[in-house]
Amino acid sequence: MRNLVFVYGTLRRSERNHHLLYGATRIAEQAWTNGALFNTESGYPILKNTADRDVVYGELYEVSESQLARLDELEGYYGEGKNNFYDRVVNTIFTDKEIYHAFVYVMTEQQTDLLHGKVENEDWKVQHFIKQNHFLYFAYGSCMDHERFKIAGADHYFQKLVGRGVLAGYTLGFTVQLPDGGRADIIEMGGVVEGKAYEIIPDAIPYLFQREGVGGRLYRPAIIEIKINGALKEALTFIVVKKEEELAPPDHYSEEILRGGEGTLSPEYLKKIKEKIEILKGKETIV
Prior knowledge:
By secondary structure, this protein is α+β, with helices and mostly antiparallel strands. It has helices spanning 65-75, 124-129, 146-152, 205-211, 251-261, 267-286, and strands at residues 3-7, 25-34, 36-38, 46-48, 55-63, 86-95, 99-107, 135-139, 161-168, 171-178, 181-187, 192-200, 219-228, 231-240. Helix content is 22%, strand content 37%. The protein has 2 domains: 3-122, Hypothetical upf0131 protein ytfp (Roll); 130-286, Gamma-glutamyl cyclotransferase-like (Hypothetical upf0131 protein ytfp, Roll). The strands form 5 sheets. Strands 1-5-2-6-7 form a 5-stranded antiparallel β-sheet.
């Protein structure tokens, strides 16, 4: 039997206990399960299994028996029915590729007093990442277009363009269906996505959250790993929450992507975007 484990806190990539997963196979960087995620004053989150439709975001790994034993030790899990600090249960885990069943460490009754408010946007890594003094933001759609920033009066937040970011393991799609056409998304289905990497400060977050419809659950903030100037760096980006069948974007949106990417993205990648949009337009014509 495969030992699949869904992690949502300090075991995630670059977090303080991630070394316990060295050598494990990452199944999905973008994974989610039902439950509610709470902060603690000790600097780690706690997942509470719930019957409602709340969602918690994290990562999915396949681990060895010895790694699972080390995770049990970290989480204070001694076995079913024992006096555990965390219980280890099997939850349904969703990814862009498929649905899995995996171990998840969830709160026990003795942890109730530790709860210290819900985690913002259901993603603990995002919550503390965007509180840094400055951090990278990866734009892959219309947010590459500086003209849109100027119109919104937000261009002062995006003055520091670090360069071209390359995101491996993802494909560009247009999975948001609005009345005038599709909007861009990244899907963890293999491939490569190019975009612009900006260095921004927390003051830019309200603008980005409003623009991306985070409050209405159109997009969600996520942390991905991009290669930029030869080095791997973590960056904030936005991913569609409810992916639908791809739809060709409207001309003005396509123009913003292509205009914004010019001079930063590779000519080969820009050509692929143009070809993809034309293919989607062709499908609509046939229908």
